[in-house]
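Two folds, back to back.
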Amino acid sequence: MRISIIGMGLIGGSMAIDLKKRKFASHLIGVDQNVLHAETALKIGLVDEICTLPEAVRKSELIILAIPANATIQLLPELLDLVDHQVVTDVCSIKKHLCESVKNHPKRERFVAAHPMAGTENSGPWAALPGLFDGKAAIITDAHDSAPDALELVERMYEALYMKLVFMASDQHDIHAAYVSHISHISSFALAITVLEKEKNEKNIFNLASGGFDSTVRLAKSSAEMWSPIFAQNADNVMTVLDAYIDQLQHFKQAMLKNDMNKMTEMIIQANRIKKVLSTSNEKLK
């Protein structure tokens, strides 16, 4: 299996490591406009060679788009123009606009829209990790629009990454992603900005920071190049979730203003239910 990965970042690089290690790929080709990323990916052995996009398509059986959402939407139609028998898939966190952008493309069936639900706050080829996808969910959307052989190949790829396959419509994916991923990043970005503004006058804030703060703002280190397009492309769903989140913050604020410990306790206990929900979900993915 000769595979091209467009985008030598965390996701593309981590896929390269395990697809080669687990013998799903015999030869990996990297494509990246960032010269440093391309050279680094080649130097540290993530890929076997670096090619231009047309050359990579000619040499490959499978092409993985692992670039930011806005760039993926722009490049996907051009990429499908180049393919013949090859299969194209992506890893974007937004699916509806992406699928709509190629719904009338004559080679639409060679594309499989997918989203591996895994990642870290780090970016670039040096952030690539083995085992990043193990045990996580890989969502395939609008599967009925993909050719059976293309779908089967992408399914096998995610099975090689030890991921559990989940199928849903692209619009439903974007709603769910807004709740479980996108709002988490916005919350982290907002908290980091709040603390950085306050830290200008109170230097002890970061001296007192510990595990709770670190875990809450971990996502604030995520790439703006990646996340700004995601928020823009999924704005309607994200704003709906953001309104609901702000509403809950207001409930907490009102309980504190009234010194209503019963209400605060009730809300915290209600939030504690997430532990059971998450443990049940993790068991289903095993």
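---
second:
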Amino acid sequence: MELAVYSIDGNKTAKTIDLNDSIFGIEPNDHAIYLDVKQYLANQRQGTHATKQRNEVKGSTRKLRRQKGTGAARIGDIKSPLLRGGGRAFGKKPRDYSFKVNKKVKSLARMSALAYKVKDNNILVLEDFSFETPKTKQYIELLERFNMLDKKSLLVIPEADKNIMLSSRNLSKARVAIASDINTYQILNAQHLVFVESSLKEVENTLLKL
């Protein structure tokens, strides 16, 4: 597929770029996307939640009433999960939520997400650029030229650029990612996917070598 290349001024240039069909033109695999996004979200969980079971609650172990003859249900000590202030039955304990997803499945998921963006015409290619100094106003003006200020956007750059990253940092709906580090969740979470021209080659190299 061929896309026009735009300048950061918002004007279409005479250049075009061909998207690699083996990445952007595949038939999307929804299950691969599901697994990759599920793993990403699971990895964000700290897993530090903790509750106290009956053996960890402070209190007497004296039996509250005799077993039989009262007409009431049998009960043990004051730390029973049935009583207020007692331990928690089957409560949460610290755990690791992460799980393994094969590299080829993750690669397929990212390519599938990119293919969906192409089908929805939500990919924009910009000429290579940089800012002389970190300035949020410059990044806002860039987004306004392409009507993306109020929408979620992901700018993909070939390598770390401190000025671009700092310029976008205070914008809640704008994200910047390095081409070799983009993941399926970031791609799908963005309404508009913006590639700097040279970053497309980095994406191809990253995905095709897996």
